[in-house]
Amino acid sequence: MSSGPEIRERPSPNHDSRGDVIAGTPRIDMLVLHYTGMRSAVAALDWLCDPAAKVSAHYVVEEDGAVWRLVPEERRAWHAGVSSWLGESGLNAASIGIEIVNPGHEWGYRAFSEPQMDAVEALCRDIIARRRIRPHRIVGHSDIAPTRKSDPGELFDWPRLARAGIGLWPPPDADLRHRRGRGVGIVERAAALSDLARIGYQVEPGNEVPPLIAFQRRFRADRWDGRLDGETAGRLAEVRQAVEASLAAEEAAKRDRFRSYRRVN
Ligand SMILES: [Zn+2]
């Protein structure tokens, strides 16, 4: 059992029941990462604990690496809002939300500091190990609410987290790109948008740009213009392949649990 990072308590009143409770245990199988998007950490903590704000998160990680718990994991914190991933909506019920202090695009977006990333990594590792959260269910706020949100944004170091076993970051796959990523025309566009939806994004006909930008911010952060160019199509194919593998592993684990249940009973 991992000991996890040192956590300070700063209770927020902004939470309620997760609702979806099986045998006394709420289903918690997603992790959502945010930035605070406020001028300072003090302002963000005050806001997330203000009953009038009606928003919160389970944890807040400051730029110096200090970690605050605002809401117990068993309770539903109000961080995601209207949201969708892999066909499921209302994701506060099944997720743990972490707010990472950063002024955000409105107040002077900047790189996340080393101590802060160390703390985010330790916190995520601890949660994932305890809750057995699958890599394809670890997302940014903009992934699940792409028309409204852009956090944690293109400066967030997802590759670093993936090296620590947190979330997906597939390596380049030249063969797959050769087959899938070249010359995006009509047919390839449909395939690429199907990849985008299969990865988890809500893709609505005629409104594909917001989820494409969210995907780019996360998986090819040097350019996030919402254009479905060859590089984006190639990356989509790589990420989809990784998601399929992660989904298959999740299904296999479920089957194993069922088999061992039947053996015992
Ligand atoms: Zn957010």
Proportion of residues in extended strands: 5-15%
Number of DSSP strands? Answer: 12
Ions and ligands:
zinc ion
Helix content: 40-55%
Looking at how many chains there are and whether they match, the oligomeric state comes to single chain
Counted by DSSP, the helix tally is 9
Largest sheet: 6 strands, mixed
Q: Structural class given helices, strands, pairing?
A: alpha/beta
Q: End-to-end span in angstroms?
A: 28 Å
The run of helices and strands is: EEEEEHEEEEEEHHEHHHHHH
- The coarse silhouette is globular
Low-confidence stretches: none
Average pLDDT confidence is 93
Radius of gyration: 19 Å
Strand order of the largest sheet: 1-7-6-11-5-12
Task: Please explain how this structure is put together.
This protein is globular. It has helices spanning 41-48, 104-107, 114-131, 141-144, 158-163, 174-180, 186-199, 209-219, 230-264; strands spanning 8-9, 15-17, 21-22, 25-26, 30-35, 59-61, 67-69, 75-77, 84-85, 88-89, 95-100, 138-140. The strands form 4 sheets. It has a 6-stranded mixed sheet. Strands 2-8 form a two-stranded antiparallel ribbon. By secondary structure, it is α/β, with parallel strands linked by helices. Strand 6 and strand 7 form a beta hairpin. Zinc ion binds at residues 34, 141, 149, 151.
